[in-house]
Design a protein that fits this description.
The protein is an alpha/beta fold. It is built from 9 helices and 8 strands. Helix content is about 45%, strand content about 15%. It starts with a strand and ends in a 9-residue tail after the last helix.
Length: about 270
């Protein structure tokens, strides 16, 4: 027979489930059946949840209720039913209140907003990695930003930084003699961003890259100033045809460049708090 645990939450229950799973991971041989009760925000719903938990032969009730009256109602009902009850958040809320002098807002669902913010960042990062360097062009319609630039202009670092802010970025390399995927023309103009860099700085970056690969930059057209200047000129012409917002990444910290782009495109970073 599994150990039955009643799980009571005033929102979606995802946070309570995650905390319970973390605890149960320390008991790998324990057979547990979880009976969830979600959106429990009144004393009446608490009593109903405890009654059903008792009927399910629950041996323990855990909760993440944040409103004092609802939490106390759960304690009373659980005591009457003879079932131990544990409030997962109360010790931390109490400690924070004691050391800060502030009072918790007791607002159900606040943790869900934190979860949504976190998962938005994870989703953006997964998308950006999948769409790095021109890959997965069929996913372009899902992008918040489509970033164009020549090789080593800083597209990937900027894309990953923006993804960590919850912004899905597809980056498209502009290669000599190679037309970008025709689907880029279907991307809304306001999502198109071009990234330029000075020819001299790009030459330094490409030369360093070739040295790391054990190659001689002096013998590689990839790092020649003439080739680079031509690439940047052609890239700028294409960006202008695409009506991209164009930014210069030369010696600019990625954080400042990302903030400028987010501001210009009205893209807000999801907040955990």
């Amino acid at each position: 027979m599994p150990l039955v645990v009643g799980l009571v939450s005033d929102s979606s229950g995802e946070t309570a489930e995650a905390m319970l799973r973390a605890a149960l991971a320390q008991f790998p041989g324990l057979d547990v059946a979880v009976v969830p009760f979600r959106q429990v925000q009144t004393a009446e719903k608490v009593r109903d949840a405890v009654h059903k938990a008792s009927e399910s032969s629950a041996k323990l009730i855990v909760s993440t209720l944040v409103k004092d009256d609802v939490r106390l109602a759960l304690l009373d009902a659980a005591n009457e039913a003879g079932i131990p009850a544990v409030h997962l958040l109360q010790p931390l809320l109490g400690a924070l209140e004691q050391v800060s002098g502030a009072h918790p807002i007791q607002s159900p669902g606040t943790l869900r907003k934190v979860d949504e913010s976190y998962f938005r960042r994870v989703k953006a990062m997964e998308y950006t990695i999948a769409c790095d360097d021109g890959r997965s062009p069929q996913l372009l319609p899902q992008a918040d930003i489509v970033l164009f630039g020549v090789s080593r202009a800083g597209k990937t670092p900027l894309s990953l930084f923006l993804a960590n802010k919850g912004i899905s970025v597809a980056n498209v390399p502009l290669l000599p003699g190679v037309e970008p995927d025709e689907r880029v023309w279907n991307v809304p103009v306001e999502k198109r961003v071009g990234l330029l860099i000075s020819a001299s700085r790009l030459r330094e970056i490409r030369s360093q890259r070739l040295v790391l690969l054990g190659l001689d930059p002096q013998r590689a057209a990839y790092a020649s100033l003439e080739r680079i200047t031509e690439e940047l000129t052609n890239a700028k012409v294409l960006m202008e045809k695409l009506k991209c917002r164009i930014y210069d990444s030369t010696d600019r910290p990625v954080e400042l460049l990302a903030q400028e782009i987010m501001f210009d495109l009205h893209l807000a970073e999801p907040s955990f708090f």
